[in-house]
From TrEMBL:
InterPro entries in alphabetical order: Aminotransferase_I/II_large (IPR004839), Class-I_PLP-dep_aminotransf (IPR050859), PyrdxlP-dep_Trfase (IPR015424), PyrdxlP-dep_Trfase_major (IPR015421)
Annotated Gene3D superfamilies: Type I PLP-dependent aspartate aminotransferase-like (Major domain)
Compartments where located: Cytoplasm
Pfam families, per database record: Aminotran_1_2
Top-level lineage group: Eukaryota
EC numbers, comma separated: 2.6.1.57
Record family assignment: Belongs to the class-I pyridoxal-phosphate-dependent aminotransferase family.
Domain named Aminotransferase class I/classII large: residues: 131-469
Record organism: Viridothelium virens
Protein name according to UniProt: aromatic-amino-acid transaminase
């Protein structure tokens, strides 16, 4: 942005792993720049001729704004078409022959431009040399990021309950997690400072961590959302201890309307796109004056997870290292997915239409959240279970006062958790145990909770499942209605 004088990001050479520092990328891709030479006949790159791609046109029916529902789309959706040679024919800036051939690790310039603009609209990072790269979703981005920063034997920091795949990604890379206490707002800033200030290399068997993995919104599994002040406090701790932050934020746009309970009228949806954007909690990226954040965004929860497309935002230095890795591993995101999302987002909806779709999702998830919270109010025994309505995401944590169980303390937390889990199964409902999400299995926990998701089941099934959960709890605890 030319008129704002922004400074450059910090340099992170001293934090990069040996693997990352020694990546030279894909040497065959380096000759790509010569392809621009006028009159050049290339017998160079082994890009197959698109003549042999057995695909002529791609056609998809999608919602016509503002008619977002399945039924409306079937009725009055818009059919988008991509032809094989739309570029040559001047019909589009992107086509099948381009998208379906080899591309760049950073992603196709067409969809990349869209996500960069979107990132500027939503987050406007406060330093000069930020950039984006397409990813194959946050699972892949996180795996590549850990390899980029950590050596075997390092520890990284995260919420004490964390997305289990993050632990399962780090573990075979030889990276353990140091867990940081949480409260209703998720990661604790003072807890983070305490862990770092009192770090004992000998006792921990690892040097002081410098990488923080956090899921700041609708955290998986607790559903917690960090407020703005909490983030500012955590960012200040990150500056004090010179941390690099991995912001894994697939639920950013599943921030919901405030929860008001059944006896109050629903708060009206945001009146305008501006009001919608203002209602969103500022991301770490939006406050990242140092360039110490890698923000991972994913289309999984807002468009479709099977398309495997996301993007990440960080300083040029980090993006360059990341794409050098992508060039020789994933080779970048799927061309089919990039073309499909480009057609939808850039050529059909544009930024405004995409934001309107996100408001639609916000209202849908609000309804779902209200259904599960209403069912909890009706069916759960308050003397042993407590919950807070989530502000975002798709998870409702149900906290159990296990010390009131008749078998406590003869049975441990984990034994009781398993007993309740099995009682739920016997009663016909499945929830996930909180202990599946321990960041560090060696840390002692004294809280028990179950994770319920409200993202998929029909409303009446959500209601029934919670009722069964309540019955299972009553049975296990030996309490009557
Ligand atoms: N292995 C060999 C021997 C190749 O020649 C190529 C393509 N040039 C690849 C792997 C890359 O394959 P893919 O496109 O499936 O990643
Ligand atoms: N990160 C978190 C915290 C998640 O909860 C999930 C989805 O379950 C993912 C990442 C996976 O995202 P993606 O589909 O972009 O790989």
């Amino acid at each position: 942005n030319a008129h704002e004088k922004k400074h450059k990001a910090k340099n992170w050479d001293y934090r990069l792993s040996l693997e990352c520092r020694t990546r030279e990328g894909n040497s065959l891709k380096k000759v790509a720049k010569y392809l621009m030479t006028p009159g050049l006949i290339s017998l160079g790159g082994g890009l197959p001729s698109s003549e042999y791609f057995p695909f002529d046109t791609l056609s998809v029916k999608v919602p016509t704004p503002p008619h977002w529902t399945e039924a409306e789309t079937r009725e009055s959706g818009t059919t988008l078409e991509a032809g094989k040679y739309d570029l040559q024919l001047g019909k589009s800036v992107y086509d099948i022959s381009t998208a379906f051939n080899y591309g760049l690790g950073i992603g196709s310039p067409q969809i990349l431009r869209f996500v960069i603009e979107h990132t500027e609209i939503v987050h406007n990072p406060p330093y000069a040399d930020w950039n984006c790269t397409m990813t194959v979703g946050n699972t892949s981005a996180l795996e590549m990021a850990i390899r980029m920063f950590c050596e075997r034997g390092d520890m990284m920091l995260s919420e004490e309950y964390t997305f289990s795949a993050a632990v399962e990604t780090a573990s075979p890379l030889g990276v353990k997690i140091a867990s940081v206490p949480m409260d209703e707002e998720g990661l604790s800033a003072t807890g983070l400072d305490d862990v770092l200030s009192s770090w004992d290399e000998k006792a921990r068997g690892a040097s002081k961590p410098f990488l923080l993995y956090t899921v700041p919104i609708g955290q998986n599994p607790t559903g917690a959302t960090q407020g703005e002040q909490r983030r500012r406090d955590i960012y200040a701790v990150a500056q004090k201890h010179d941390l690099y932050i991995l912001e894994d934020d697939p639920y950013y746009f599943l921030q919901m309307q405030p929860y008001v309970g059944p006896d109050h009228p629903d708060p009206p949806p945001p009146k305008s796109r501006e009001e919608f954007l203002k209602s969103l909690i500022p991301s770490y990226l939006s406050m990242d004056v140092d360039g110490r954040v890698m923000r991972m965004d994913s289309f999984s929860k807002v468009l479709a997870p099977g398309c495997r497309l996301g993007w990440l935002t960080a300083s040029e230095q980090i993006i360059e290292r990341y794409t050098k890795h992508a060039d020789i591993s994933t080779q970048g995101a799927s061309g089919l997915s990039q073309l499909l999302f480009f057609k939808l987002l850039d050529e059909h909806w544009d930024h405004g239409g995409f934001l309107d779709w996100l408001v639609h999702l916000r209202m849908e998830y609000t309804k779902r959240r209200n259904v599960i919270v209403g069912a909890c109010d009706r069916y759960l025994p308050r003397e042993i279970v407590s919950w807070a309505p989530p502000a975002a995401g798709m998870f409702q944590a149900l906290h159990i006062d296990y010390k009131k169980h008749r078998s406590y303390p003869a049975k441990s937390l984990l034994e009781l958790e398993d007993e309740i889990f099995m009682a739920c199964i016997a009663n016909g409902t499945l929830l996930i145990k909180g202990s599946c999400f321990y960041a560090d299995p060696t840390t002692q926990h004294d809280t028990m909770f179950f994770r319920a998701t409200f993202c998929a089941a029909p409303f009446d099934k959500i209601e029934e499942a919670i009722k069964r959960f309540g019955d299972a709890l009553r049975g296990s605890f030996g309490i009557s209605n």
